[in-house]
Amino acid sequence: MPKLLGARVPENTEEERKIRKLAGSRHAPGDWIFRARIISLSWRGLRTAKIAEELGCHPKTVRKRLHRFNAEGIDGLGDRPGAGRKPRITEDERSRIIALVSKDAPGKLLTAPWGGLCAEYETKAASWKPRPDDPRP
Q1: Whether the model pTM is above 0.70
Q2: Which secondary structure element, helix H or strand E, spans residue 4, and what is its range?
Q3: From CA 57, how far away is CA 38, in angstroms rounded?
Q4: For 59, which of 6, 26, 50, 52 could close a Cys bridge (C-beta 3.0–4.6 Å)?
Q5: Distance of alpha carbon 63 from alpha carbon 79, whole angstroms
Q6: DSSP track, 68-92
Q7: CA–CA separation, 101 vs 98, rounded Å?
Q8: How many angstroms from the chain centroid is the CA of residue 13?
Q9: What are phi and psi of 91, to 5 degrees?
Q10: Residue 17 is assigned to a structural domain of this protein
Q11: Nearest residue to 74 (alpha-carbon basis) of 26, 36, 45
C-alpha cells in the first residue's frame, strides 16, 4: 500500500504562522501563495488528490511541493536559482539601448517656433551610410 504524503509538522509556531499568513495573503507573489496553500491544506488533513482538485492543479505538482517543503522548510516555497531563461544581453547593454532609444534620431525634423518644420543642422550635407549587409553597390 502506498505511503500517504503530507506536509511535515511545523518546526515552531513562527513557521506555522508564516505559512498560514502567506496562504491567506493577497499581496505576496502568486507562486508563494499557491505553494503555501498546498502546505496549509495538507496540515488540515487533505490528501494530495483533494488538494489538487481544490487548487486546480495536477496531483504531481502537490506531491512535488510537499516533498520540497518537507526537505527545505519555508525556503522550499520559493523558486530555485537559475530558473527561467538566461538574459541575452547584459544589464549594461540594456541600459545603453534604452539611452539610445530615448534620444532623438539624427536628421529628425523639429517643429520651429513659428510652426514650420526644420532640420537641426540645415547647413550640413545629408549623408547616408550603407549597412554592411546591403547588397546594393
Answers
A1: no
A2: none
A3: 10
A4: 52
A5: 16
A6: HHHHHGGGGGSPPTT-SPPPSS-HH
A7: 5
A8: 31
A9: -65, -35
A10: yes
A11: 36
Question: How far is it, in rounded angstroms, from Cα 15 to Cα 112?
Answer: 66
* Residue whose C-alpha cell is 534620444: 103
Mind listing the pLDDT tens digit of every residue in the chain (137 residues)? 567 899 999 989 999 999 999 999 999 999 999 999 999 999 999 999 999 999 999 999 999 999 999 999 999 998 888 878 888 999 999 999 998 888 766 666 777 777 777 766 656 665 556 666 656 55
CATH code (residue 65)? 1.10.10
**Domain span at 68:** 13-77
Measured in degrees and rounded to the nearest 5, phi and psi for residue 136 equal -70, 150
CA distances 98 to 90, 94, 115, Å, are 13, 6, 30
Number of domains forming the structure of the chain? 1
Tell me which residue of 74, 55, 52 sits closest to 63, measured CA to CA.
52
Grid cell digits, residue 117:
518644420
Domain assignment present for 46: yes
